[in-house]
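Design a sequence for this backbone.
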């Protein structure tokens, strides 16, 4: 993963950067929340590891800005803090944090939480692709709405290339609908029944 670490303590930044690199991740560091936000705007990251208390911009405020940026793919936020009260946990979650670790943190616990983060990120990305596919399908279905030029005699439809095609072919191309043909009762009485009567009369004449 590409991970952005934001912590105002140089020692903590060095330890986190070293450990995350050893885990196989690509790491960038920032000395406070404002610097981290500027880095986040320049390039995408898969995860953020944020200290809670930082100058210029703290962890929760940075998390709120990240979550407000709807144009970017999902980014996992792990908050580092010495706070342990329920109120602090609620505040962090409300700000947009996905997970927490208390300082001083354990290396193995950090690795395990990042493994969990990878699963969450993969799930969020798959969900985003599903949503994109659904929106694309809906946009194609919506082409059936509105005013369609249709021949009053043969009921062919003119498409956006100025080509006339059968209504069944047009709808099949622009939706998931499939067709099976039958005869409605009205058409049977008006068209088919008289035709059958004529055929029956012709057959009786030939039999005489």
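Sequence:
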């Amino acid at each position: 993963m590409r991970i952005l670490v934001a912590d105002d303590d140089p020692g903590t930044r060095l330890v986190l950067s070293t450990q995350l690199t050893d885990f196989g991740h690509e790491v960038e560091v920032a000395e406070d929340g404002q610097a981290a936000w500027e880095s986040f705007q320049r390039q995408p990251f898969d995860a953020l590891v944020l200290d809670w208390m930082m100058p210029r911009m703290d962890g929760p405020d940075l998390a709120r800005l990240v979550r407000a940026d709807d144009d970017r793919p999902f980014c996992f936020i792990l908050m580092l803090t010495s706070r342990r009260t329920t109120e602090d946990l609620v505040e962090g979650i409300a700000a947009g944090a996905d997970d927490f670790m208390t300082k001083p943190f354990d290396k193995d616990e950090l690795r395990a939480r990042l493994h969990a983060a990878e699963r969450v990120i993969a799930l969020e990305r798959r969900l985003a692709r599903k949503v994109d596919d659904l929106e694309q399908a809906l946009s194609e279905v919506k082409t059936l709405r509105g005013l369609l030029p249709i021949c009053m005699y043969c009921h062919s439809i003119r498409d956006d290339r100025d080509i006339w095609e059968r209504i069944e072919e047009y709808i099949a191309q622009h939706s998931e609908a499939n067709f099976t043909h039958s005869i409605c009762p009205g058409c049977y009485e008006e068209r088919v029944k008289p035709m059958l009567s004529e055929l029956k009369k012709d057959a009786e004449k030939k039999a005489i």
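The longest helix spans residues 107-141.
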